[in-house]
Amino acid sequence: MTAASSIRTIGALAGLLVTLPVDLAITAIAVLRRVPPPVVDETSRRRTVLITGGKMTKSLSIARAFHLAGHRVILAESAKYRFTGHRFSKAVDRFHCLPEPTSPHYADALLDVVKREEVDVFVPVSSPASSVFEADAGENLGDFCDVVHGNVRTVRMVDDKDHFSEFARSIGVRVPDSRRITDPIQISEFDFPPGREYILKRIAYNPVGRMDLTKLSRETPERNLQFAASLSISEDDPWILQEYVAGQEYCTHGTARSGDLQVYACCESSAFQVNYEMVDKPEILSWVQRFVGRLGVSGQYSFDFIEGADGHVYAIECNPRTHSAITMFEGHPQLAAAYLDDRHPMIVPEVDSLPTYWIYHELWRLLTEPGRRDRMRVIGRGRDAIFAAWDPLPYLLVHHLQIPSLLVKSLVTGKVWTRIDFNIGKLVELGGD
User: Fold this and answer.
1) Strand 72-78 relative to strand 48-51, pairing
2) Which is deepest, 234, 303, 315, 387, by most CB within 10 Å?
3) Following DSSP, what letter does each residue of 305-323 receive, concatenated?
4) pLDDT digit string (tens) for 293-314?
5) What torsion do the CA atoms of 125, 131, 137, 138 make, to the nearest 10 degrees?
C-alpha cells in the first residue's frame, strides 16, 4: 500500500469516528423507544431459512422479511466478514462463519450448517464471485432442504454474458449485438458496422474495470486494437464485444419458482447504483417473465437493461443472484411467502414503499458533488436501506464495526481499495470478491 493509500484509509477511519456519536444517539433513541416491528400476516408453517451473503444489505432485507413472517433465520458469511453488523440483527437467530465460496470445503460446510440447524430452505444471497459456487453447493443440499437458486447449468449459462445473449436471442427477446472475444486480434478483424459503437466487457466478474466504457468503432481502428491489447483477453479469460446502446439504464430483481416470476422490482440504474425507486416499465416486465418462463427453473435473477433511442429495451446482462433493489420490499407482508411458496401471485414493492438509499453514500455526495439541493430531496423523500427503528443495531455496527474492521485490515495487509460500498458491506478491491 502506498503512502497515499494509507492516508486515505486513515482518513476514512477518522471520518467514521467523527460520525460515531451521532449514530450512537440515533441507535440509543431507537432502543429506548422500543419500536415494535411491522405486523406481517403470515399463515404458512414456521421454517428455518439459511441465508448466505451476510455482509450485504440485501441479505438483511431478506432476513427481516422471513423473521417478520415468523420463520427462524440462520445467517452465514465468510470469516473475512465475520464482523458484519447484520449478525446482530433481531431478525437473525444464529450466525455461522463459512469458508470462502471458492474453497473446496464450502459445499461441505454449508451442508453441515443445514444438518445442524435443521434448515428447511436455503436462500443464497450471492456475491458476483460466488453465485456459481453456491449453485454447485445447492446440488448437494437438494436432498435436505428447498433451494431457492438456479441449478448449476442455468447459473453458469446466464452468468456468462455471451451465452446469456445467445439464449436470449434464441427465445426472441432483445439484446445488443455481441461477439465472444478470446484474442485481441479479433478486434482488428471485426467488421464494425458504420455509425455503431461497441464496448468490451470481461465475462468474469470485474469489480473495478466493469465501469470502463471505452467505445470502439470503425473510425478508431488503431485505438480499438491498442485498447484490446491492454486487457487480459485470452482463451482462459474471454471478453464480450457488445454493441453500445445509448439510453436510460434500468435494473431488475426477480425471484422465480418453477419458471413463475413471483417477486419483481424495476428501477432506473447507473454504473454505480445506490438509489432504488420502483418504476413501471411493462416491456421490461414482459421481457423478464418470458425469459424466466423459458428457463423454467427456480432462483433469483437480476437483469440490466438499456432503453434505446428506438424506444425498445435491450438486456445487457443477467446476474443470477439477489439484487439490492430487494431493499424496496422491506416490510412487505408477502415477501417471505413469495420466496417460499409455489404459484404465489407476483408481488412488487408496495405503492407506499419509500425509495431506498445508503446515508453514508448520500453524505459523501453532499460533500463532493454539485446538486446538493437534489441530494437533500433524495434523502428527505426516501429511507436508509439498513436502518430500521425496530432493529437499529445493524445500522450502527455496519458503519462502526464492519467497515472499520475492513479498513484496519487493509492497513495491516497493504491491500489497496478503490471504494467503500456500504450497500454490499465491503471495500471494492482490484480482483476482489
Assistant:
1) parallel
2) 303
3) EEE-TTS-EEEEEEE-S--
4) 999 989 999 999 999 999 999 9
5) 60
